[in-house]
Amino acid sequence: MATLLSKLAWIGVHYPKNHLLSSPLIFLPSYSSFFVLKFIHGLSFKCARVGGVEIPDNKRVEYSLQYIHGIGRARARQILCDVNIYNKKTYELSAKELVTLRDEVNKYLIGGDLRRFNALNIKRLENIKCFRGLKHVREEELRKYKEEKVERRRKKRALIRKKKEQESK
Questions:
Q1: Does the keyword Chaperone apply (predicted)?
Q2: pLDDT tens per residue, range 107-131
Q3: What pLDDT is recorded for position 153?
């Protein structure tokens, strides 16, 4: 058992309580060790990595795609229509379907690239010193209805201060 553990590479697997292997994490470099873990110890692992994110296996693909930053309900449905995958769970996908899904997802701006794109746009607004850029610098809300709400709060606080000043005199 110790030699098996010494040959394996780190990967995160959770064991049931009172399992033979005492370590919470095990290692997996070769197919033979995968075979031992799967059939002898009853552990199985499979995860789909799409767009740089590991998506859940036990959910429908439509919902598991939404774990990727930049893909919402509408875009996930559009991607699945383009790839012709309907009503499947992630673990039911074949290797070919997974490859086509990855290719389709990579056509969009997602993940870290999308975050970087948005951050650069905000920096541009701050550099040209437009209204929205200044709001970002001051970390204020950008939408008008929030401004009105904040203004009401300021007025209430000013009234409370005035009343306290009058009472103290």
A1: no
A2: 999 999 999 999 999 999 999 999 9
A3: 77
Confidence class for position 28, pLDDT limits 50, 70, 90: very low
CA distances from 136 to 48, 73, 115, 139 (A): 37, 28, 16, 5
For residue 49, count other CB atoms closer than 10 A to its CB: 10
Q: Which domains does the chain have, with CATH numbers?
A: 48-107 (1.10.8.50), 113-168 (no CATH)
Go through 118-136 and write b for each residue having 16 or more CB atoms within 10 A of its CB, e for each that does not.
Answer: eeeeeeebeeeeeeebebe
Q: How far apart, in whole angstroms, are the C-alpha atoms of residue 150 and residue 148?
A: 5
pLDDT at 79: 95
DSSP letters along 23-83, please? SSSEE--SHHHHHIIIIIS------EEETTEEEPSSSBHHHHGGGSTT--HHHHHHHHHHH
